[in-house]
Design goal:
12 strands; 22% helix; 6 helices; 258 residues; alpha/beta; 2 domains; single chain; Rossmann fold; two-stranded antiparallel sheet
Length: 258
C-alpha cells in the first residue's frame, strides 16, 4: 500500500518511522503534516523488538485527513505494526465505519469522552486476546483532540500501561502544553518528553511508567517532600522484603524528592 504525496526534503525517510508513516499516509511525518516521526523514532527505537501491544485512540477517516490523497483509515496503525515487528496493534474510534481488522491489527468502538466506554473497550480487548490482565507497551492518543477527553483518557488508560510503557498525547497546542505537564500523575509515571512542535498545534507530551511498582521500591516515587519531626524511611525489595535502605530524619528536617 503505497501512496504519492507532494514531498519536500529533508524530511522524507529521515527515520524508519518517517518512511512508514509516509508509506501508509499517516500525518505523523513531516512530509505530510506533523513533525512527530523523528521524535518518536528517538523515543521508541530501543523498544522496536520489545513492545508487543500497542493501543491508539483514533483510527482516522478521510474527512479529518482530507489533505492526504486517497487516505485509507488505519494508516498509523499499519505503520506501528510494521515498526514493532512482534506487536499486535489495537485501534479505537467513535466512528464505527472506520473500524477494521487485518494482520496483527484489530479495531474497537469507543467514545473517549466517557469513562465507562473506555473501560468497556478494554474489557472487549481482553476478551479478544483472552487475557484478563491486558496491558499495553505504547498508548497513543490521536483521537478527538479535546482537552477534557485527552485528560480523561489518560486517567483511565494509563492504568493499563506496562512497566516501561509509554503514553503519548498528540496534537497539543503550545498554549495548552502546561495543562498536560501539570496533570496529577499516578505513582510510577513520569513525563519523559515535552515537544512543542513546529507550529501552534504540533505538540505532544510523552509519559512513561517506570519500574514502580516493581522489584525495587524506589524512594523517588513516593517521597514528594515530607516535612517531619521524627520520620523513619525504609526501602524494601518487594520480591524478597529485604531492607535496601533505611534512615531516620533529624527533627524538623525536610525530606526532599530524590
Amino acid at each position: 500500500m503505497n501512496m504519492t504525496f507532494n514531498v519536500k526534503e529533508p524530511y522524507v525517510f529521515k527515520t524508519e518511522l518517517c518512511k512508514l508513516f509516509y508509506k501508509y499516509g499517516a500525518d505523523k511525518c513531516p512530509a505530510i503534516r506533523h513533525s512527530y516521526s523523528p521524535e518518536y523514532y528517538t523515543l521508541l527505537k530501543e523498544y522496536k523488538s520489545q513492545f508487543t501491544d500497542i493501543l491508539e485512540i483514533g483510527v482516522g477517516n478521510d474527512c479529518q485527513l482530507r489533505y492526504v490523497f486517497e487516505y485509507i483509515p488505519g494508516a498509523s496503525l499499519r505503520a506501528w505494526r510494521d515498526f514493532f515487528t512482534d506487536a499486535n496493534v489495537y485501534g479505537i474510534d467513535i466512528d464505527k465505519n472506520v473500524l477494521f481488522e487485518e494482520e496483527r491489527i484489530k479495531c474497537f468502538y469507543a467514545d473517549q469522552s466517557k469513562e465507562e466506554e473506555l473501560e468497556n473497550t478494554i474489557r472487549d480487548i481482553e476478551k479478544y486476546t483472552n487475557n484478563k490482565n491486558q496491558k499495553f507497551d505504547l498508548i497513543v492518543d490521536d483521537g478527538s483532540h479535546i482537552i477534557s477527553h485527552m485528560i480523561l483518557s489518560f486517567k483511565i488508560l494509563s492504568k493499563y500501561m506496562r512497566i516501561n510503557g509509554i503514553y503519548i498525547i498528540e496534537d497539543i497546542k503550545k498554549e495548552d502544553i502546561d495543562r498536560f505537564k501539570n496533570i496529577e500523575l499516578p505513582m510510577g509515571i513520569e513525563i519523559i518528553k515535552v515537544y512543542e512542535g513546529k507550529d501552534s498545534q504540533d505538540g505532544f507530551i510523552a509519559y512513561q511508567r517506570l519500574d514502580f511498582p516493581g522489584e525495587t521500591f524506589r524512594i523517588k516515587d513516593f517521597v514528594r517532600g515530607v516535612c517531619c519531626l521524627d520520620y523513619f524511611i525504609c526501602c524494601l525489595d518487594l520480591g524478597t522484603n529485604k531492607r535496601l535502605l533505611s534512615g531516620k530524619s533529624h527533627p524538623g528536617s525536610l525530606i526532599r524528592k530524590v
